[in-house]
Amino acid sequence: MTTMEALALAKDKSTSSEVLAGLIENADGFVLLQVAAHPNTSTETLDILSHNENEIVRQFVAEHFNTSVETLVRLSEDTHIASWVAGNPNTPAEVIHRLSKDEDIFIRISVSVNPNITMGILYSLSKDDDENVRAAVAKNPKTSLDILKTLAKDENEDVREVVAEHPKMKQK
């Protein structure tokens, strides 16, 4: 199979998980990226791709909804991939908790917008020193009205503007 044929299959939304698994034997980076992003890619194939040397392939694996918890835990230890893991709704609570304390601002921002974040972590991150993290907390639909009211008084204008756009603030 040519690279172009493999790429066409990897881009086709109806391609089965079995066919996608066979495509990872193709070393072409573009094919691997498409497989890693494909909604039908199996957990097993994603696990194999999670070991790929290409950082972008691993990023796609980290954000994929079929990626196993075990793979997400392992990828969370990779500083180049952790921010992608932090935003995945399947990332376990203990990993989210650990990543919420990471020194990397981008990781904390990704944690802040995770749809399965706990209210306790949202509260902690709403007090983060970085205004971008606080703004990300304000964007999360799960953020409580109490946290939003506190952030509405934030010293940073951008944070206050994000709070003003939150649906819960518009319902007041």
Written overview of the protein:
By secondary structure, this protein is mainly alpha-helical. It has a domain of 67 residues. The protein contains 14 helices and no strands. Helix 1 runs parallel beside helix 3. The longest helix has 9 residues. It is elongated, with a radius of gyration of 19 Å.
Helix and strand arrangement:
Blueprint: H1 3-11, H2 17-23, H3 29-37, H4 43-49, H5 55-63, H6 69-75, H7 82-86, H8 93-99, H9 105-112, H10 119-125, H11 131-139, H12 145-151, H13 157-165, H14 167-170
Helix pairs in contact: 1-3, 3-5, 9-11, 11-13
The largest β sheet comes out as: none
Question: What structural category arises from helix and sheet content?
Answer: mainly alpha
| Count of strand segments | 0
Strand content range: under 5%
Number of helices: 14
Work out the helicity level.
55-70%
H/E topology pattern: HHHHHHHHHHHHHH
Low-confidence stretches: none
Measured on Cα atoms, how large is the radius of gyration?
19 Å
Bulk shape:
elongated
- Distance separating the two termini: 59 Å
Mean pLDDT: 93
Summary keywords:
172 residues, mainly alpha, 14 helices
Concise account of the structure shown:
By secondary structure, the chain is an all-alpha fold. The protein contains 14 helices and no strands. It has a domain at 1-67.
